Every structure is written in C-alpha cells, then in structure tokens.
Amino acid sequence: MKTELVLFGTHINMASQGRRRRLVVVVYAGFAALMLAGWLIDRWHLWGAILIIFVAPNVSRMVIGGYGALGKGMVKPFLGNEIHARYTSDPNSRWSRLCRLTIPQVTDAIEFCSDEREVRRRDSAHEVAYRRLGMVVIFTFFIAYIKNAALPLLKVAGIVLPAAFFDLLVYGLLIAEFILFLTLPQTILLWTEPDMEQPQ
Amino acid sequence: MIADSSPFPWFSTARRRTRRMVVAAYWLVALGTFGVCQWAEFFRLERHSGAGLLFPLQVVVFLPAILGGVRAGGMVKPFNGVRWVPLPDRDYTQTLFGPPRPLLGSMTASDLELDERERQDRNRVHFVAYTSARWMALVLLALQCVAGIASRTWMINFGSAAFFLLVLILWSLPQTLILWNEPDMEQPR
Asked: Which of A145, A174, A181, B42 has the fewest other C-beta atoms within 10 Å?
C-alpha cells in the first residue's frame, strides 16, 4: 500500500491509519451523494444509472486502486504479481511489449508487486468482503423474493403493500452492491492497515 | 479444507474425481432449478405457484448440505467455524446457542476448525472467486444494458435472471473451486 495519494498533482500524506480511514469515509460519502444525485435526476432509470456506472469505477481506480493494472490509487494492483511474472517470463513477447506500453510501472517490481504479507492481507480482505457482500446480496434477494412471491399472497389476504416501493428498494440495493463490489476489499485494506512508516 | 463427514458416506471424499462429480451434480441441479424458475416466468405462471420456492430451497438447503462451506454438514469444512449445525446423527435436540455437540459419530466441532494452511487456502480461493464474480457481474451488467437497448421487457426479465445467477455464483463459487482443485488425498488405512 502506498503512503501518499497523488490526486490531480497534489501529494497527500496517507501514512497514518486515521487519514486512510477518513479517506474511506469521504469516498463512501461521495458515493452516497452520487446515488442521491442519480435518484434525483431520474430515479436511477437511465442517466442516473449511467452517471453511477461511469463515475464509480473511475473513482475506485484513481483514488482507491487495487483493481486496474495502471497502479493508480492507494492500493497496489491486486494482480500485480501475476502480471509481473508473465512479463518477466518473456519481456520481448508481443504481450509484454503491449504491457510495457500500456502499464509503464510493470518494470518496477517494488511499486507494482506485492510481498508475501501484502498478498496474505489481500486474500484475507477478499474473504471478508465476499462474506459481507454475500449478506447484502442475499438481503436484496430476500426483498425481491418478498415482492415477487409474498405480495401476491398478501394481496389475496387483503393486505396491499406498494410494489413500487419494493422495486425502488431493490434497485437502490443493487446500485449500492455495484459500488461495494468495486471497492469493498480495497477499503477493508485501507481501514485495517496499521500506521505505516513515512517515506524518507 | 475437505471435511471427512461427507453428505454421501458411500463416496470417498479423498478422490478428486468423486468431488468433481458431486460439484457437477450440484451445478446441474442448481441450473436446472434456475431453468424451471425461468420457464415459469416465461410462461407467465403464477409467481407463487411453487417455482419461486425452488430457488430459495436450493440456496438454503442444497448448497450447505452438499457443498458446505457456509455451515457444517457439506463436503467443505465451514469457512468461519461451526456456529450452527443441523441435527447430527442420533440426536433429537437442536442446539441453537452454545458450543455445538459432537457431529456425525466421533467428529467434533474442533475437527471442523480450519488450521493456518487451510485458512490461507480459504482466503486465496475467496480472492479468486471474488475476482471471477466481479468480472461475471460486469459482463451481466453489460448484457443487461444491451437488453435494455433492445426492449424494456427483455431488460426486466434478463435483470432478474442475471441476479439469480449472481446469487448462485456468490454462494457456490469458493466451495466449487476448492472441491474441483484440491488434489487426491491419502486414503485412511
């Protein structure tokens, strides 16, 4: 993990855990604002959804890092070791030349690759993220199931609940899951990594 | 990572081929159920006609009982310790809270705890599963966008099918990877 974040040319020190946690809070607050904006535009139907689908992955890649091989963002590329190993196996192959052209950092093993401790932390963060995300997905599935299976039964019994509310809830949860899918392992790493040494 | 307490005692869990057969059977049942749900939707059957019940049954009962991972009882050891187990052999009282009692004859909860190497394997498999599921989710999202351009009805139908698939993948992929890739183990003498 990097100790500083470069955002639009500004170097921000991120060595302390407190600062990284503040960054995570700011990023998720930004995503919440983005979801609100999408809802206000057209209830996430077209432009609202497009706004989120285009902005969220870019913010995730530029600020948080992890996924995306360009090495931008706080977290090193998760697949850096695999890409670097393939690159060093034959640096003159067509794939390696293309890789060097599109990802110049691939030659810098220190910046691009993760050590054994980082790989273990990466795997552990993914395990936690998988479990948490699984719970959110199951909750969404449950809401969708209530809407599709239970509402008609309740209607037969004389209880009418607004189906549009359930639709909106499911859609909102799916968008939140999309954002979490892109960011959760990285933010777990940023949140849990202890204070790091400042660069000399 | 493989529990000795197989749900199919007549199969040897030590053999990779057997495990692959069980995984293939599980996915066949899962996708078959999924197909039935889609068929019911397609022919506009009543949504509470029973087809909608098959999938939750699949997710809640078949998955933990066959593949395991999410709780004790399947072929893969529970990923996060034993918190709840269904009625063990020759036991007529369900324990909801407190330490679980011996499972399946002489097997105890401590036998199902993961050691350090198994924890690393579990985390590694979850990384692979997360990365794969992430790509699958993005592909499904792109397909749904294409369906949305074609027709709103297609988008709604495809959206629910894609979400079903994603739930199924999220619940089953790590266990599938473990069972599929774990090499043959030594048979107990």
From this structure: B42
Contact assessment for residue A152 and residue A166, using Cβ atoms and an 8 Å cutoff: no
Q: Does B166 touch chain A (CB under 8 A)?
A: yes
Residue B171 CB coordination number (10 Å): 23
Do residue B52 and residue A145 have CB atoms under 8 angstroms apart?
Answer: yes
- The predicted structure's pLDDT at residue B106: 46
CA distance A73 to A4: 9
Q: Which of B47, B126, B171 sits opposite A123 (nearest CB)?
A: B126
pLDDT at A125 over 80: yes
Put simply, whether A132 touches B (Cβ < 8 Å) is no
Q: Is B94 in CB contact (< 8 Å) with chain A?
A: no
Which helix (H) or strand (E) segment holds residue A10: the answer is strand A10-13
B72 touches chain A (CB under 8 A): no
Q: What is the mean pLDDT of residues A165-180?
A: 88
- Distance in angstroms (rounded) separating the CA atoms of residues A2 and B25: 45
Which of B47, B79, B163 is facing A152, going by the closest CB pair? B47
State the DSSP code for B18. Answer: H
Task: State both tokens at B36.
Answer: 């039935």
What pLDDT does residue B105 have?
Answer: 45
Averaged over A14-21, what is the pLDDT? 92
Of B126, B160, B163, the CB nearest to A130: B126
The residue type found at B57 is: L
Q: Sketch the domain layout of chain A as residue ranges.
A: 4-78+115-192, 79-113
The answer to whether A133 faces chain B, any CB pair under 8 Å, is: yes
Residue pair A30/A38 in contact by the 8 Å Cβ criterion: no
| CA B123/CA A117 separation, integer angstroms | 13
- Test A137 with B167 for CB contact under 8 angstroms: yes
pTM: 0.84
Coil vs helix vs strand at B10: coil
Q: Considering only B18-27, B104-113, B173-182, which range has the smallest mean pLDDT? A: B104-113
End-to-end CA gap in chain B: 20
Q: What is the mean pLDDT of residues A88-98?
A: 89
